[in-house]
């Protein structure tokens, strides 16, 4: 079981950040519509993280991250999404900077 000091939203982004390079290696050039796949791949962890968000500040950061990810897909910079960097960055931001202050915003 996850402790109280660990955010489930952060864990979701961590998993997606670690799985993105693996999926990119196996699915590249095998997906018929790569753009829509990456929209769905970017949207899924954000929707789940919104459900498990512990504070309003985390919700705002998740929505901001979603906007950035969708803009990256719109600009066709697929390598950024496939690297998992944006997901890992969000996991770090939520865990280190937001989680200690979540009690202030509840």
Task: Please outline what is shown here.
The protein is mainly α. The protein has helices spanning about 10-25, 35-50, 55-75, 80-85, 85-100, 100-105.
Characterization of this structure:
It is a single chain. The chain is 76% helix and 0% strand. The protein has helices at 8-27, 34-51, 56-74, 78-83, 85-98, 102-105. Helix 1 runs antiparallel to helix 5, helix 2 (34-51) runs antiparallel to helix 3 (56-74) and helix 3 (56-74) packs antiparallel against helix 5.
List the helices and strands and how they pair.
Layout: H1 8-27, H2 34-51, H3 56-74, H4 78-83, H5 85-98, H6 102-105
Could you name the key traits of this structure?
transmembrane; membrane; 0% strand; 106 residues; transmembrane helix; mainly alpha; 6 helices; single chain
The low-pLDDT segments are none
β-strand number: 0
Please tell me the overall pLDDT: 83
Largest sheet: none
How far apart are the termini? 22 Å
Helicity range of the residues?
Answer: over 70%
Total helices: the number is 6
The amount of beta strand, in percent, is: under 5%
What Rg is obtained from the alpha carbons, in whole angstroms?
14 Å
Structural class designation: mainly alpha
Number of domains: 1
The dominant shape is elongated
- Element-level helix/strand string: HHHHHH
């Amino acid at each position: 079981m996850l402790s109280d000091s660990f955010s489930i939203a952060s864990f979701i982004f961590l998993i997606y950040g670690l799985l993105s390079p693996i999926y990119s290696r196996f699915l590249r050039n095998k997906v018929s519509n790569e753009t829509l796949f990456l929209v769905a791949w970017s949207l899924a962890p954000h929707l789940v993280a919104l459900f498990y968000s512990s504070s309003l500040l985390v919700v705002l950061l998740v929505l901001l991250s979603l906007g950035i990810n969708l803009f990256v897909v719109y600009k066709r910079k697929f390598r950024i999404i496939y690297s998992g960097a944006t997901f890992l960055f969000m996991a770090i931001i939520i865990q280190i900077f937001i989680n200690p202050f979540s009690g202030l915003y509840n």
